[in-house]
Amino acid sequence: MEDFLSLIKDEYGILKIEEEISAEYEAARILREHPTKTIILENVKGFDIPIISGICNTREKIAKSLNCTVSEITQKVIQATENPQKVTNYSGIDDSANDYKYNTEKVNLNKVPILTHYKRDGGAYITAGVIFAKDPETGIQNASIHRMLVLGKDKLTVRIVPRHLYTYFQRAERENQDLEIAIAIGMDPTILLASTTSVPIDYDEMDVANTFKDGKLTLVELQKSGIKVPQADIILEGKLLAGERAKEGPFVDLTDTYDVIRDEPVIKLDQMHLKENAMYHAILPAGGEHKLLQGMPQEPRIFQAVKNTVPTVKNVLLTEGGCCWLHAAIAIEKQTQGDGKNVILASLAAHPSLKHAVVVDEDVDIFDPQDLEYAIATRVKGDDDIIIVPGARGSSLDPVATPDGTTTKIGVDATKLLGKEEKFERVSLSE
Fold first, then answer.
1. DSSP labels for 174-194?
2. Of all residues in the chain, what percent carry a pLDDT higher than 70?
3. For residue 89, how far is the Cα from the chain centroid?
4. Residue 96's pLDDT is what?
5. Residue 255 region by backbone torsions, left for phi larger than 0, else alpha for psi between -120 and 50, else beta
6. Catalytic residue ranges
7. Distance between terminal CA atoms of the chain?
8. In sequence order, what are the beta bridge partners of 104?
9. What is the pTM of this model?
């Protein structure tokens, strides 16, 4: 992560706070006060490890890590997921080839400044931990970010949704076997973004990260489990316990509202590896990092689905105001009058949690909320251009939806009428 911090230091700055800060509530308050800053809390009460947050809380920082512009991020992710490069650089945890020097000891989470963010939280939560595991049947490795509630110095409960890690754990439980895992905390945005991408279950997300890094990613092979993880500030080793569940929650999710309490799998930890001068990466729930890392990987999925319907799609954005989850803006080069409505239907199907979709022409900057509002104000005739879909399955995170996520979806076609383009010509852009 040091290389990336050096990269953003001059352009975006790093706010270092030297005064003593508590990991319970106080640290989260400071992170909320500086939503777009990269922050290092150097003096955490009762801990020797500092806290870092905000390394990827803006699209600009993520674009910097990918060596592209903000508008190019979606294409960059599509290219990497379609053409992943196999990782070829490996080291052992104690190898001289490893850039990081680790201190290995029996796990004790009491040494790590894990934040308690809000008053009603179920407890202290690890929020930037990437879980690595191998498929018990194929041996293919998966990487994914999950929130983890601290139960004790060596126990966590983890929220897992039905995707790859969920499938691996189910396969292990059917054989009454625990699933060996590793948790890596403290990595740069390219690895975090790769961990959240939507790839098939027989793909390894670290091959996507390797593509982002031009084939230069090095993974550390853990001796006990054989799991391979990036060079992170903190690496934890343990198991998902077959047949064991614990209460998880409450937790503040993307919409800045509390998710429900559930029975979730339990992790029993064994060893931890701390890098020399390690920092603990904390992602603020409902903050910029949380929204972007969870939402941005859905943009390529929407783009590809829309492209199958309207090949002239230009870009897709899940807006920050829509929690990077519930609202999409899609720019197209309109060729037939029905293109806008077809794009709406394709986008709602591609990302089932999507609630509202707005389609605009390519002269509208979808990254500019004011430009989006301008398109809605000048190019929408309500009875012709708005689609309402009641009783549709949406997101369980939506406070107005039913518990299973059933809601009403809306699509807005904010594109120009074909044949009457001169009425919508934006003089300031053409002269």
1. HTT--EEEEEEE---HHHHHH
2. 98
3. 25
4. 60
5. alpha
6. 253
7. 45
8. 273
9. 0.94
Place of tokens 């509530």: 25
Report the pLDDT value the prediction gives residue 11, as an integer from 0 to 100. Answer: 73
pLDDT in tens, 1-21: 767 777 677 677 899 999 999
Summarize the confidence of residues 324-335 as an average pLDDT: 97
CA separation for the pair 174, 140 (Å, rounded)? 18
Sequential DSSP letters for 24-72: BTHHHHHHHHSTTSEEEE--BTT-SS-EEE-TTSSHHHHHHHHTS-GGG
Say if CB 281 and CB 186 are below 8 A apart. Answer: yes
Contacts of 428 (CB under 8 A, 6+ apart): none
146: pLDDT strictly greater than 90: yes
Q: CB of 399 within 8 A of CB of 257?
A: yes
Least confident of 11-15, 22-26, 58-62, 213-217: 11-15
Token duo for residue 182: 């590793």
Q: 21 pairs with which residues across the strands?
A: 44
Place of tokens 């601290």: 150
* Residue 311: C-alpha distances to residues 51, 342, 427 (Å): 45, 11, 28
